Amino acid sequence: MEDKLFNVAYRILRNHCDAEDVVHDAFIKAAENLTQLKDTDKLSYWLCTITRNKALEKYNKKKREVLMDCGIYDNVQYNYLSSFHPDFILPEKICINNDFEKYLKEKISNILDPCSRDILFAYYFDYMSYKEIAQKFNMKEGTIKSRISRSKAKIKLLLQNVIV
């Protein structure tokens, strides 16, 4: 479980030490708020969510610190910062990405049946492996892979119809 949480944090922060710190902080927060967990079957998802939120907090805080040190938000500054860290994203873009993620989840929920939707969300938003998803839904890994593939095809078809 700790490796999975580390991977969630590392994907956001791209820094080994920061990812370890975030996982540690996430475990502390989880321990402090354990009474809020209503369904123990969702412990893994709950911990991933806490870790993801903590990683995003740290990421945003680091960006604010860098931007404050530099004093400006303009494109020249953005280009300067992104030359040191290619994954650098302005805070405004993170807000847009979060809003887009909510919008995307809502639209996907309208397209897919609940089981396929939950499998797709577990894979893409909860960073679960095929094996973990198969165990969670009591299905074979091959079934999970084909459900994800079919779900992606449905979404792609819908997007083609919307764009064209």
Automatic annotation (TrEMBL):
A Pfam family this chain is assigned to: Sigma70_r2
Domain RNA polymerase sigma factor 70 region 4 type: 116-155
Annotated RNA polymerase sigma-70 region domain residues: 3-64
CDD domains reported for this sequence: Sigma70_r4
InterPro entries: RNA_pol_sigma-70-like, RNA_pol_sigma-70_dom, RNA_pol_sigma70_r2, RNA_pol_sigma70_r4_t2, RNA_pol_sigma_r2, RNA_pol_sigma_r3/r4-like, WH-like_DNA-bd_sf
Keyword Cell cycle: no
Keywords of this entry: Sigma factor, Transcription, Transcription regulation
Gene Ontology MF term list: DNA binding; sigma factor activity
Lineage: superkingdom: Bacteria
Gene3D superfamilies linked: 1.10.1740.10, Winged helix-like DNA-binding domain superfamily/Winged helix DNA-binding domain
Keyword Transcription regulation set for record: yes
GO biological process: DNA-templated transcription initiation
Family: Belongs to the sigma-70 factor family. ECF subfamily.
NCBIfam families in alphabetical order: sigma70-ECF
Protein name: RNA polymerase sigma factor
Organism of derivation: Ruminiclostridium herbifermentans
